[in-house]
Amino acid sequence: MSNLEPNEPHVGVYICHCGGNISDVIDVKRVATELGLHPNVVISREFPFMCSDAGQKLVIEDIRSGKINRVVIAACSPMLHELTFRKTLQRAALNPFLYEHVNIREQASWVHKGDHEGATQKAIRLARAGVEKILLQDELEEIQAKATKHVLVIGGGPAGLKAALNMAARNLRVTLVEKSSRLGGHLHELDTLYPSGESASALLAKLLAQVNESPLITVVVGTTVTAWDGFVGNFTATLSSGATVNAGAVIMATGYDHVIPAGGEYNYGGDPRVTTLPKLIEHLKTSAGKPLVWNGVPVKSVAFIHCVGSRQTEGVHAPQADGKVNDYCSRVCCTAALHSINVLKARQPDLDIYDLYRDIRTYGRGHEAIYEQASKNGVLFFRFTEDAQPEIREHTVVVKDILTWGEEVEIPADLVVLVTGIKQGAVGELIDMMKLPVSSDRFLQEAHPKLRPVEVANNGFFLAGNCQAPMDLVESSAAAGAAASKIAALLSKDYIPLDPYVARIDSEKCTGCEACIPECSYTGALFMNEGTKKAEVNAALCKGCGACVAVCAPRALDLAGWSIAQMEAMVDAMVTEVPA
Amino acid sequence: MSTVESPDTNAPKILIITTIASSYTGANTVGQARAQYAPNTYIMRVPDPVMFPEDFYLRCFEKGFSGIIIMSSGSDCPYEGAYGRLSARVGRVYLTMREKGIPTNRLKLTTVCTVCKHAFLKEIDDMQKVVREQAA
Strand (E) positions, A436-509? Predict the structure, then answer.
């Protein structure tokens, strides 16, 4: 029988065997026995598969019996089943946050296979730490923010158009804001699209017709966002026209810019024979079916040089405006170059084409076939290294070809095409205004590539297309679809549930010292109440990083669910000895 | 990489502070690869280690942890400005450690991503050497 008062935490501990994944290494019976000795643990069990229906039923029955009001499950990673067990608690009418998940598989049994005793002791300490944490856990409640069922799409290129159409198809109203005078973005520049060979103009016309026909999409061109306010579910964008848009979520589809070769790189800007791939593609579009003529001169031979403005190395390449080189791969340019080569060869089979590359990265579905076709078309490939760039001479390009053991090859070239990369568009003002995270490559950063793809850490922001990373049209469309799906789910109810793990303040303890205010990077999330002279948190704007918590001397601030007291209690449990 | 230890209940303990967005998943990736390291390592997950006041680390040493590895998300941190603040904070902890005569190599701030298996294991190996030297 428990000696605990009814209002005290009564913890149920469940140790999962994971069908031997855990129990083959960790003595789960011993872990359960040791945990059962804790004064607040009233039930301590081990079970073959806690995530199974039978395992979850066990927890539900124990809760419903009134024996326990807190749950600790020691099993696999919380990344896999934390949500599963939260729902289990909900089914038993217990607050889903009164549960702690302890990882004794990925971070114990799987990594300590040769040390069963050590792994078992560690599992005991980790499970005890879980118990100590949950003893100090409050009944957290999801934060609810009103959901405005209207979406703002910034950027009217193909990703923005696809995103708007996808959301309209889900009955969401959309305002599509484009800063230039027309929709379509870089799709206007393109000729035929790989891998389908479809006409870019025809595709664009189709997309524009669909957008124009949709009663749910409002298009605003020649307009920028000049001010930003609010939080997920209730953003307000002020446009350069003076109009305001209220939106529950926003899709960033701001696209990309072409990298312009640095002054003098491969004689670009000085030698009229040297151009870039985007300019060649535009030329192909306006000279359909005709043999290649450049600056009035018929072209008999063309050399393509890859990785210009991409995969740059410090000390070798000139830095960009921010002082850093573009060390990332622009991904799409290899296939784009090879596709253009095949277009050229189809028009002019006797054209000599030389392809100078560091690596060919034809990564997408059907891309490798484009590479194979270029090879079949008689294109000659030469491979160079980053420290031995090709050199442009009067009528030739010289390359040290590592495919022929470093032989220096002199290639005749009437035209040199620099296969330039892509970079983040000019969205610095939006980034500053909206406080958006930026990756080391300067593109907008998604919260997590696997766990939260196309989402930004800032709640309510989503990414579509090349503003996130170099993508081809297929990938951009997929990202736009993914973002639209996530927004449809987000705005499906009248309110948006937000994670309760945000900063909270005990106003009794707050001394009004204001040390926390400069620690917060999110406008409006943490502020001083002019009346009470104490700090206050806007839970809908707080991102839950905890930066403010660390500087609060009287410990008035804490992160819900991750309080310093909880962390300290866990530390104490981890260092407590375990009987051998 | 890390070797499997023989059972040793008195082995110096290492606290590994990980981030939900990056290094905690990185630790899982190590497990999924069945890479092995010693069990005197205790992984704590938090939204971001920037939440810890400077005295938290000193308290961990006092309570019995011999080494602490802060595996941050580095420049990939989803929280604006958090890495800079964390870095400055850890710098101040080092100053206090020096004042108190605690070897500063017992606390390491590093960056581990979701798939950084080798970096994760290397940091543990490095810290194992430090705490063993301290214990000797």
Answer: 461-463, 495-498, 503-505
Pick the more confident residue, A483 or A456.
A483
Residue A412 carries which DSSP code?
E
- As given in the structure block, the two tokens for residue A279 are 């300019």
Rounded to an integer, the average pLDDT of B85-90 is 96
Return the structure tokens found at A549: 């918590």
Give Cα A224 to chain centroid, integer Å: 24
The mean pLDDT of chain A is: 94
Q: Which residues of B touch A77 (CB under 8 A)?
A: 28, 31
pTM for the complete prediction? 0.69
pLDDT at A447 over 90: no
Task: Identify the DSSP state of A185.
Answer: G
Domains and CATH numbers, chain B: 13-135 (3.40.50)
The per-residue pLDDT for B6 is: 42
A–B interface: beta-carbon pairs under 8 A: 163
Distance from CA of B118 to the nearest CA of A (A): 14
* pLDDT on residue B26: 87
pLDDT for the residue A263: 75
Give the 3-state DSSP-derived string for A236-280, with helices as H, strands as E and coil as C: EEEECCCCEEEECEEEECCCEEECCCCCCHHHCCCCCCEEEHHHH
B69 contact A CB<8A:
no
What amino acid occupies position B121? L
Q: How far apart (Å, rounded) are the C-alpha atoms in residues A414 and A291?
A: 13
Residue pointed to by tokens 């001169």: A297
Nearest CA in chain A to B78: A457
A521, A562, A578 ranked by CB distance to B81: nearest: A521
pLDDT of residue A448: 75
What DSSP state is assigned to residue B109? E
From CA A293, how far away is CA A300, in angstroms rounded? 9
Contact B39 A118 (CB under 8 A): yes
Residue A339 is inside which H or E element, if any? helix A332-347
Residue A537 and residue B78: Cα distance in Å, rounded?
Answer: 20
Structure ipTM = 0.94
Per-residue pLDDT at B8: 56
Whether B4 shows a pLDDT value over 60: the answer reads no
For residues A322 and A515, which has the higher predicted lDDT (pLDDT)?
Answer: A515
Express as a percent the part of chain A with pLDDT over 70: 99
Set of chain B residues whose Cβ sits within 8 Å of the Cβ of A551:
53
Q: What are phi and psi of B67, to 5 degrees?
A: -140, 150
Q: State pLDDT tens for residues A231-290.
A: 889 899 999 999 999 999 999 999 999 999 987 899 999 999 999 999 999 999 999 888
Interchain CB distance below 8 Å, A103 and B30: no
Number of Cα atoms under 13 Å in the Cβ half of residue A139: 7
> Per-residue confidence at A3, pLDDT binned at 50, 70, 90?
low
Helix, strand or coil, per DSSP, at residue A356: strand
Of B13, B52, B59, the CB nearest to A550: B52
Q: Answer whether residue B5 shows pLDDT above 50.
A: no
- Is the confidence at residue A316, as pLDDT, over 60? yes
Interchain proximity A521–B79, CB inside 8 Å: yes
pLDDT at A142: 85
Q: Walk me through the domains of chain A, giving residue ranges and CATH numbers.
A: 11-140 (3.40.50), 150-255+425-496 (3.50.50.60), 265-422 (3.50.50.60), 500-560 (3.30.70.20)
Burial state string for A3-40 with b = 16 or more CB within 10 A and e = fewer than 16: eeeeeebbbbbbbbbbeebbbebbbbebbbebbeebeb
